[in-house]
Amino acid sequence: MNPVEKAARDSNVEKCVQCGKCTAGCPSGRQSRLRTRTLVQMAYQGQDVTGLPELWDCTTCYNCAERCPKGVNTVDAIILLRNLAVQKGNFPRIHLSAIENLYNTGNGFPLSPEVAQIRAIIGLKKEPYDVSTAPEELEKVKKILDITGFLELVRGGTT
Ligand code: SF4
Ligand code: SF4
Hints:
Layout: H1 3-10, H2 21-24, H3 36-44, H4 63-67, H5 74-87, H6 96-105, H7 113-121, H8 135-148, H9 150-156
Helix pairs in contact: 1-5
């Protein structure tokens, strides 16, 4: 069994009846190339989808998994396929800045001055309480990323 077939099996994609409820409810698919049903079908057939750019258009909102009448773990399948894609060197460069932000600040999308201003207008604290405002917690995040070699892995896999 090749890794793509294993990812497909672990996510119950064999239960898919191709009803299309996942694609119909996918908010990302309305704005992008992502077609969840097609991706599931291709993975089930053992096709190598790890080079498809739309694999990275999913926001992991889980709407598709919620809607699936057959209990297919579509999001797990997509995440597994992404893992395989990175191992093959298919990590889109466009996402690298978010990964490096995560490492440096604990937040993939650090607070911009504009957002900070909006927060102030609606009465929120200027900065949310998260890892970026807790240096000791940020060190823990960095340690995890260092130990797992995450940063090096994605840097090596950018396309
Ligand atoms: S909703 Fe579930 S059964 Fe329907 S196409 Fe999507 S994965 Fe297959
Ligand atoms: S988890 Fe991904 S594929 Fe599923 S509905 Fe959300 S964006 Fe679409």
